[in-house]
Design goal:
The chain has 9 helices and 9 strands. By secondary structure, it is α/β, with parallel strands linked by helices. A 5-stranded parallel sheet has the order 3-4-5-6-7. The protein has a two-stranded antiparallel sheet with strand order 1-2. α1 crosses α2 (about 45-65).
């Protein structure tokens, strides 16, 4: 089992993607970080299903590790194992021996509880090389990020700040607000009085609410700008605290 066959939604053309093809595509794109080819185990699943998925992933990652990269590109291995401690630990130990440039914790934020996600970190981060970066994939909320950093995670990716912003869910230092709520219709305050982003310095809650209710693209853009600024400021404060 060396890859996956896909069919184009446009004309039904078949194409094959495996660890060799995946690395070649990322190499051609000039990715700074090339991710090893893996299978994100579905949730929920049985231990047997997760074990089979992990064996496939480990085989793919060993092949990925041997693929050539351009100068400056780094390859990260991806820890899998669903919500099972023995599989998570096995994955972390084997990948550590493969000596990737960095390590990602994958297969989280796929439907499991926050408690299960934190356990997945607890089981793996201490087994990964301390001198190499750790990346938590697809996470998360501000509280998730703080919990992860406390366990040795270095960076993250997540659609939450931008996706939520487009739907009017804005992050503030006093919690999330839904800017589309009627109570903000005539509110002349900034989104967050404690925020110094360009949006909060120049626009009111009422104005941004009006834009979003009118489906004006500017409303989404301003909301995304604010949320991204909030996340950047959050990570800045975490660095200062460390």
């Amino acid at each position: 089992y060396n890859g996956v066959e896909f069919a184009s939604h446009i004309d039904g053309t078949k194409f094959f993607l495996g660890p060799v093809e995946s690395a070649a595509i990322q190499r051609a794109l000039g990715s700074d970080i090339v991710m090893a080819f893996d299978e994100c185990t579905h949730y929920p699943c049985t231990h047997e299903e997760a074990e089979k998925s992990l064996e496939i992933t480990l085989r793919w990652e060993e092949i990925s590790r041997r693929q050539p990269l351009k100068d400056g590109q780094q390859m990260f291995g991806i820890v899998q194992g669903s919500v099972f401690r023995d599989l998570r630990e096995k994955s972390a130990k084997i990948l550590s021996e493969m000596d990737f440039n960095g390590y990602a914790i994958g297969g989280v934020s796929v439907g499991e509880s926050e408690e299960e996600m934190i356990k997945a970190m607890d089981w793996t981060t201490h087994l990964l090389p301390e001198h190499k970066p750790r990346y938590l994939m697809g996470v998360g909320t501000p509280s998730n990020i703080i919990e992860a950093v406390a366990r040795g995670v270095d960076f993250f990716d997540c659609v939450m700040p931008s996706r939520n912003a487009r739907h009017g869910h804005l992050f503030t230092w006093n919690g999330i607000i839904n800017i589309k709520n009627l109570k903000y219709e005539r509110d002349e305050q900034p989104i967050d009085p404690q925020c110094d982003c360009p949006v909060c310095r120049n626009f009111s809650r009422a104005y941004i609410r009006h834009l979003q209710k009118a489906d004006e693209m500017l409303g989404m853009r301003l909301a995304v700008m604010h949320n991204l600024y909030f996340y950047n400021k959050l990570t800045e404060r975490i660095r200062q605290a460390l």
